[in-house]
Amino acid sequence: MTAFNSMKLKQPAKGTKIFMFGCDNGTEYVNHDVQQFFKEKGIQFELTIPRTPELDGVAERMNRTLRNKSRCMLLESKLSKSFWFEAVLTAAYLINSSPTRALVDGKDPAEKWSGKCPDLSNLRVFRCTGYLHVPKEISGGKFQPRAVKCVMLGYTPNGYRLWSLTKRRIVTG
């Protein structure tokens, strides 16, 4: 169970107090510590009826949308299923940067949240080739490569999440 489908707010989160929290009996929220936190903060806690995902309509639909988008990105990219998490993060980033009918003012969720229109000039195709800059101080010499070939997997607030083909790990750049 993820926070994506477990959380329903009755009012906007930014700049307002959460007064009701609903979840679908996911164990990440149904425990003593969380119950105590909600009680201390005066947050009403509600559980839906077990095994009735239709009661979590909007959240369940978003889960399906995220799964579909990330599945398509993985299939098209021919990457291993082990990159599913990166695909889901990228799908969420793209959804939050896209306009939605749910917001009547025609803004996208990122713009509604931050108050400014997001810069979409950084969008790239999932799994495209990217190059990570290597500063000359750590490259090992004047005639060493200044960039390392990588695979673009997603976004960070100020760059990209890249799979380093040489180090075989995720780096940011």
Short description:
The chain is of the alpha+beta class and 173 residues long.
Main sheet record = 4 strands, antiparallel
Strand order of the largest sheet: 4-5-6-7
Total DSSP helices: 6
Class computed from helices, strands and strand pairing: alpha+beta
Number of domains: 3
End-to-end separation in angstroms reads 31 Å
How much of the polypeptide forms β-strand, as a percent range? 15-25%
Radius of gyration: 20 Å
Tell me about this structure.
- The structure is a single chain.
- The chain has 173 residues and is an alpha+beta fold.
- It has 3 domains: 1-51, no CATH class; 62-122; 129-172, no CATH class.
- It is built from 6 helices and 7 strands, in the order αββαβαααβαβββ.
- The protein has helices at residues 3-6, 32-41, 57-77, 84-96, 109-114, 136-139; strands at residues 8-9, 20-23, 44-47, 129-133, 147-156, 159-164, 169-172.
- A 4-stranded antiparallel β-sheet has the order 4-5-6-7. Strands 1-2-3 form a 3-stranded mixed β-sheet, covered by helices on one side.
- Strand 2 (20-23), helix 2 (32-41) and strand 3 (44-47) form a beta-alpha-beta unit.
- Helix 3 crosses helix 4 (84-96).
- It is elongated and about 65 Å long.
- The relative contact order is 0.10.
Topology, element by element:
Elements: H1 3-6, E1 8-9, E2 20-23, H2 32-41, E3 44-47, H3 57-77, H4 84-96, H5 109-114, E4 129-133, H6 136-139, E5 147-156, E6 159-164, E7 169-172
Parallel strand pairs: 2-3
Antiparallel strand pairs: 1-2, 4-5, 5-6, 6-7
